[in-house]
Amino acid sequence: MIDKYNPVDVESKWQKRWEESGLYRVDNNASAPKWYALTMFPYTSGDLHIGHWYAMAPSDVYARFKRMQGYNVLHPIGFDAFGLPAENAAIKRGIHPKDWTLSNIENMRRQLKSLGAVYDWDREVITCLPEYYKWTQWFFLKMWQAGLAYRAKAPVNWCPNCHAVLANEQVVNGECWRCETPVIRRDLEQWFFRITKYADELMRHDGLDWPERIKIMQANWVGRSEGTEISFALEHADMEEKEIRIFTTRPDTIFGVTFMVLAPEHPLVQKLTTSEHKAEVEAYIDKARHCSEIERLSTERKKDGVFTGSYAINQLNNEKVPIWIADYVLLSYGTGAVMAVPAHDERDFAFAKKYQLPVKVVVAPPQWDGNVPDEAYTEPGLMVNSGQFDGTESTSAKTAISEYIEQQGWGKRVVSYKLRDWLVSRQRYWGAPIPAVYCDKCGIVPVPEKDLPVLLPDDAEFKPTGESPLKSNPGFVDTTCPCCNGPAKRETDTMDTFMCSSWYFMRYTSPHFTQGAFDTEQVKKWMPTDIYTGGAEHAVMHLFYSRFFVKALRDMGLVSFNEPFKRLFNQGTVTHEHQKMSKSKGNVVNPDKYVSELGADTVRAYLMFIGPWEQGGDWDDSGIYGLSRWLGRIWNLALDDYEEKNCETTDVANLKNLLRLMHQTIRRATEDMERLRFNTMISALMEFSNYLGKIHDAGSVQRADYNKAVCTLLRLLAPTAPHFAEEVWSRLGYSYSIHNQRWPEWDPALAQDDEIPLVVQVNGKVRDKLMVPSSVTETEAKNLALGSPKVQIFTDGKKLVQAIYVPRKLVSLVVE
Fold this sequence. Notes:
Layout: H1 7-21, E1 34-39, H2 50-68, E2 72-74, E3 78-79, H3 84-93, H4 97-114, E4 125-126, H5 130-145, E5 149-159, E6 164-166, E7 171-172, E8 175-176, E9 184-193, H6 199-203, H7 212-222, E10 224-234, E11 243-248, E12 259-262, H8 269-272, H9 278-288, H10 293-296, E13 305-314, E14 319-326, E15 337-340, H11 346-355, E16 363-364, E17 382-383, H12 394-408, E18 411-417, E19 422-423, E20 425-426, E21 436-439, E22 443-446, H13 474-477, E23 478-480, E24 487-490, E25 494-495, H14 497-500, H15 504-507, H16 520-526, E26 531-534, H17 542-555, E27 568-570, E28 573-576, E29 579-580, H18 591-598, H19 600-609, E30 616-619, H20 621-639, H21 647-674, H22 678-698, H23 703-717, H24 722-731, H25 748-751, E31 755-762, E32 765-773, H26 778-786, H27 789-795, E33 800-806, E34 810-815
């Protein structure tokens, strides 16, 4: 009698053997075609929960599948190790962020190794180690040299709880994405990357196999608009500035402007505000600073503003319009000023009604009666109240008015973007220091490449003062100017951690290379990645920045490709009790418990079985125990003695049926693997194993044929349950390792059914379902359909108008 499968002993045994033999060590010089399968590396939070496994396990299954198909597969792992949570932990727990992070990595590495993945641990990347962030700093210098890095004073999102600057993408519903504290605005000197230079290119995804929704999200984030920049003259004759310029996509409504709105931060606000309105304007500006850009742009938020006391002149009709400020206008988009046309813009209409401002129709709705409408009309129409353009269709008037404005010298046609440059400065310690020094004599000076890395000091003091802890560390701050050798100060901001993750996929190709950030020959060999898997929440952060990074490096001559990731796949979310997992809810599932009891292979198989990978599913203990029992049945099928029974008389038919199902299963499993449909792949293996169980009990084929079918099942199962398949393979006496075996291939002739179902419709309704030979011709199929007694009930005495044949599926009869 065979012993019972013991996953704990088996998995530890094979993990040790794989590591000692270097089974998964990637050979850069292998002759096999490359396949770079990458999963987004985890942040070093401390523990991997089942959601992490849901990202890691299926991607490992796919990498193993491609490896068995004969590819030289690179499927690396590492740790996104810089970031604010480590610094917060230092403050809260009194532990250094480096110690906290490295301790977490040790635990997460242990958990990841228990997964049994094909990771080549010699290629591990940790972004907080100097040997990595040296090159992050080097890339900063390259951006600076290329004119893509600059320093400017600008309003930023500030989290008063984290004491850190946030990128626009890190503000969610007006709150910090990590701690959910309401975000306020502050003006600080910041480092930026000129990502806007690549705005048009970042909107395009030519040749990329990416989800459509991610493409749309990125295009919307760029927010490209074609319009006209128009000058409004200022009434104040004593001001140096003589105009306010606005950007509009609706120049056809220029004659309907009844007021203007400036962003509260607009530099002209203080000059335009009259003394009697000063107190009200300053109070409003202070209030606006407590709102994030996301909150200010919310369509659900009620719009408000205040009058500055000044006026501008619409040069097309010489009308005087009042100048207001309102926080729904952003200085960073367009020109920071908008012309307000309440008759043809819903937001302007609501504002005008609230403050009793005029509403002037200039694009007439159909059957317009000449009165002021009850709501804004935003569709095309005929121009009215628009001088020489009256009677023109509004769509063509956009061009005509733009040309007229250009002829008069009052403006020009331009392209505007919502996208702003990437803010990379962070006022915190646990990040890559920005390699810049400040010299009273030489100004801002880059740190020479030979002096990299600029190391983080271990003795930083962590106090939430609103400034980087590095500022209070004289050993770090005080330095020598690289140009004049005089006294200088180091930059104390560190880089956004998205900087680290914008190039890590290239470091994996040569992680121990010391002459540069990567070996250019290895990057040329492996990049771009063939598939990249991870969460859709990174659409306008990590994925966007990585694309910009690669394009910038391409233009510097450092890489020769245009995009980092050829195919992108976003997995869904694992819930528990139909709720999103959360520590506060106490419903987080720790995989360690199930691995120690049922084994990693059972957890892997269950995660892929709970639903389509892109949709996710709900964790259910009863379900995982069902998968454990399934593996136990395969264990018995493979290792229990097989006894032939009466094979001589039934062997031909039984063998034919077995071969058919085996080749159909290979076909289904292969196609499902390629589509990342792991749940249906496992269903196919379950059906095949159930059939093998019947064969086993009946002893109805010869031992050699049965063994061949079992070996095929094991090879199909190997990517999903690698330890289990390896153990059974070994016990059956086959050579090490099953993971060096080729993925089975199916024979189309053997996979073909003898009979197939043929649906017969009469006037669109199903009237019969026939079993016909799989080789049936069109003529035969139509004759069989017409000869069916069930069909003849609806066709007798009627004229056959048409008979439509869908090969091997359907005959549709139309009668009258």
